[in-house]
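hey m, so remember when u said the tokens were messed up on ur end? i reran from scratch. heres the input so u can diff it against urs
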Amino acid sequence: MFIFLMYIPFLISIMLSSFFSPSESPEIPVQIIGLNDLHGQINTTTPLHGKPAGRAEYIASYINAYKQQFPHTLLVHTGDMIGGSPPISALFQDEPTIDFLNMLQFDVGTIGNHEFDEGVGELKRLIDGGFHPKTGMFPGSSFPYVCANALDANTNQPLFPPYAIKWIDGVPIAFIGIVTKETPFLTMQSDMSAVTFIDEATAVQTYVRELQQKGIHAIIVLAHLDGKTTNGATYGPLADLANKLDDDVDILFGGHNHSYMNGYVNGKLLVEAYSYGRAFANVQLTIDRRTKDITRKTAKIIPTYHDQLQPNSLTQLWLQSYQTKIAPLTEQVLGNSVHELTRDQNKDGEADLGALLATSQRQAMQADIAFVNLGTIRHNLPKGFITWENTFLIQPFENTLIKMDLTGREIQSALHEQWDDEMRILQVSGIRYTWGKNGVESITLENGEPLQDHTTYSVVVNSFLANGGDKFTIFKKGRNRVEGPTDQEALANFIRSNPSLENVQVNHIQKIQ
């Protein structure tokens, strides 16, 4: 018996050698680096935990360093890589951001709601290549985009390939892409009738079964769908999705809410790495060569702090070439702010910067009342000199201002819609209101007079809200519509006429306990 036991290790090695060549291991280690919600922020620095992070030259240094350490590496993203971009990308139709992703040699990505901001045609041009009158010919993306739940409304077929298969050392890994089905309410494009967005879980499960029939069991979802990890608990729409999916789905990369996520739900690893390139998800996994399935997976969220690595010099030179082209416009000084104005909401739901934007839009359109959705405000206004670029960074979507007529009762209904589904406090000018656990309690004009139900008021909102964005349906009913400048132009003009920003009123909103 003892002699037989001595031979067991030898027998096992003989058995394994019949499956694998001498150079092959029974397990394959794989590294997957995930980025989300870049929003074209290739030349902006945004703090993460109080430290400078992001910018293309640092993102490139980090990703290149991690790729060099690991031979089997795949680079993926989960959408909103463009849209709401700074001038260096937006003024060139976001082609610089696509170029940057190509330079990093991404392997596969999915679509976010903001990829649809300029319509399906422009999105396909950026991916497949084509001509634009502003920029000329563009070669497009060097890697595939996948999305399983965005369908052509005419054919009922996916607009993009639903999945991509990548091979690592002879073993396939499949990536299924999805975007939030709420996209029609979350894009700057007013007409999304050409696209049907179906249930995310239904779409994923359909293609999981198709992949399983092909013998593929290492399946990863790239989801423009949000989640969050707090105190060890992972929750949100992506977590809900994870609970509905087949066991062959092992990892879900998330995005959309610009948050931190790193946890397990239903045996699946869920990750998300903030936004604006301030961090990336570093997933380490192991695949069994025989079963072709993922057997282990762990992750870290890696900040791209500027004090940890030197910037990539080639990326710096590339950025500077674009910066030189736009400098005559972006570096124009419009005014000088004594204080920093931020998009951070106070306990009542009001932001200093939100009040400024609402005031600028109300003045631009000579309206009684202005409403601004907080999601359109993407950067703070720093203390000191205010440049044209600052105003663009704050409102990069370039929404057109729309003045319309609404009755007092309709305005009250619009304010109540702030609590439909989830709380979305609008920034206002021209009125003051109080709110509590039951919604709006009282509304007055700025002069103290009560808002009259049957009186008609002129109201200005951006084109996103005017078309029912963020599920504010009342604004779609506005009558006698008049188009004005963009929201960014209104802010720039307001600062030119009020260069010190001393006359902006706040305290429009009060929360009642």
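this time it looks ok to me. The first strand starts at residue 27 and ends at 35. if urs says something different then somethings off w ur setup not the seq
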